[in-house]
Amino acid sequence: GKGTYPFYMLKEIDEQPTVMRHLISEYADENGAMKVDADIIKAIQASDRIYIIAAGTSYNAGFGAKQMLEDLTNTPVELGVASEWGYGMPLLSQKPFFIFLSQSGETADSRQVLVKTNELGLPSLTVTNVPGSTLSREATYTMLIGAGPEIAVASTKAYTGQIATLAFLAKAVGEAEGNEKAKAFDLVTELSLVAQSIEASLSEKEAIANIVKERLLETRNAFYIGRKQDYYVAMEASLKLKEISYVQCEGFAAGELKHGTISLIEKDTPVIALISNNPEVAAHTRGNVMETVSRGAAAIVIAEEGVAREDDDIVVNAVHPYLSAISMVIPTQLIAYETSLQRGLDVDKPRNLAKAVTVE
Ligand code: F6R
Question: Active site at which residues (predicted)?
């Protein structure tokens, strides 16, 4: 049950530090060595390209892990929207390995692709929260997120749990490959720091509620912007806000805004910028924020320690860059939750939606 919580979504947001710690105990031993099925590692080592197939939030989680997977496994990673791939696959590499990301393990669009890859005899891994689910049974391998039941329609802990699960996979494969970055990446320590960063963000609920009250309560539209890893988080943040608050929201690559879409900025249009601790791009994203502010936007800046400034609205504790999608998404989950709550909507059961989409 949801205990003292008004909605499952808030409970599930709060559970995320526990999910991170659970994954550490599940996929690493006491000495910090990876506990990932050797057959999965071998299958990925034998492949020349990883294809991640998913829908919605799980698709966004794939992006959150893409850079890390490529860096640590030396294997290119391509993302595919399940509903697009179900009706004609693009030209595949010689030795593809498929990863299906699915909280429920029951998404029909994703299964449609799995049926095809099985027909082609290609190896696959399902990363899911539901043991024994269809996608888990039908794929070659399974890795469980173990986040506990996710009841709210809007997915939160499955997103962060998927990225963390893929981190263990990436490190395990990278170590087997002798990849120096993989060996140097102290995942157990880094993920513990992520859990602490999440806890710090969770203690900012009141501040976030106030930001929502002042700048998001009346609006019909909004933008999330960011570059690189932050762009991927922007896509997930905007999906979440749309889904449960019905605010039309676009997640945009910050530098791409000026190539057309900036014409939508009006007085008080909320523009929420995500700026993680990547000095190479942080200044550029700030420049893009200024461009929108000079056109009347109401900017909200979520910045990570290291590149944060005193007047930023929300500051997130710094984590390893591979894991920043996990920590940076937390304030955006709370923004979506608060916007839905303050608008008096049914946070857990948005209109027109089902938890698992079992039709194509
Ligand atoms: C968004 C959301 C959906 C699901 C999507 C995939 O909050 O819940 O976008 O992420 O339907 O579902 P799974 O991961 O079960 O395949």
Answer: 355
